[in-house]
Amino acid sequence: MEAAVCVLDEDGIEQVAVAKIATIAGVSEATVYKYFETKENLIGQTLESAMTQFVEMLERQVRAAEGCRERICRLSILSLQDMARRRNVQRAVNGHLRWAGQYKSTIHEIHRRIARLVEWIFAEGVKEGEISAQCDLVIAGDMLFGALEGAAWRTVLQAEPRPLDEEAFVDAMVDQLLGGIRPAAAT
């Protein structure tokens, strides 16, 4: 699987060659096909494995953080860093396989795990008094996901990636998410 992730990330989903994966893994192409019926099956299982590992790490890191702001920041920075590090894997998931019926249920379940983690962050924020109890947590989650995906597609996921200062972006995004965009009331 590691060889497949490397090839997928290096060459992109359109250019993945099973022969190259086999060479990097030190096995024959026939051996690869012994475990994976098709190239699409190999790609799907590779993406599922890579995403599952990332989500497990993300859950541990976020749950270890103290407070709503720190949890949102940690989730956001780790997500953006992963998108930058594994650009073609993320592009395959977010721009192609995410909507393909063959992979839909597993890829969507992995995304649902992240959504549940965000729901937990916001619910804890309400319990801890950091977020208003009147806040629509689904909308807040959509705002967070939209901001992260938008930033990634404008920068690190471009064909010619542009740098993104993850910490500065996340700090400003979380300020707006938690503080709102209305001007402060006059005193």
From TrEMBL:
UniProt DNA-binding residue ranges: 17-36
Entry keyword set: DNA-binding, Transcription, Transcription regulation
One protein family per Pfam: TetR_N
Residue ranges of every copy of the HTH tetR-type domain listed in the record: 1-54
InterPro entries named among the record's database cross-references: Homeodomain-like_sf, HTH-type_TetR-like_transc_reg, HTH_TetR, Tet_transcr_reg_TetR-rel_C_sf, Tscrpt_reg_YsiA_C
Protein name: HTH tetR-type domain-containing protein
